[in-house]
Design brief:
The protein has one domain. It contains three helices and two strands. The chain has a two-stranded antiparallel sheet with strand order 1-2. β1 and β2 form a beta hairpin. The protein is globular, with a radius of gyration of 12 Å. It starts with a helix and ends in a 28-residue tail after the last helix. The model has no long low-confidence stretch (mean pLDDT 91). The structure holds zinc ion. Zinc ion binds next to loops.
Length: 77
């Protein structure tokens, strides 16, 4: 799976990626399909290497940490 296709699929599945102590974590576990697990594993290095554009914190590929997420204040739909 192309990494650009991974984020919409993760979002659609209700899965969240986090970097915890340098390890990639995806959850909730019950939302993970085999396809998503394989795609996350495939792109693990790129996801771990992604850093917040503002503070350099690991972002698991989202581009912004929680503190600098420009979409965090938008109302949930
Ligand atoms: Zn940040």
């Amino acid at each position: 799976m192309d990494i650009r296709d991974l984020f919409p699929k993760i979002a659609a599945a209700g899965v969240t990626l986090r970097v915890v102590d340098g390890a990639l974590r995806a959850g909730p576990v019950e939302a993970l399909t085999d396809e998503l697990r394989a795609a996350i594993r495939e792109h693990r290095e790129a996801l771990l290497a992604a850093r917040c554009q503002h503070c350099g914190e690991p972002t698991a590929g989202y581009g912004f940490c929680d503190a600098h997420d420009p979409f965090a204040d938008l109302p949930a739909r």
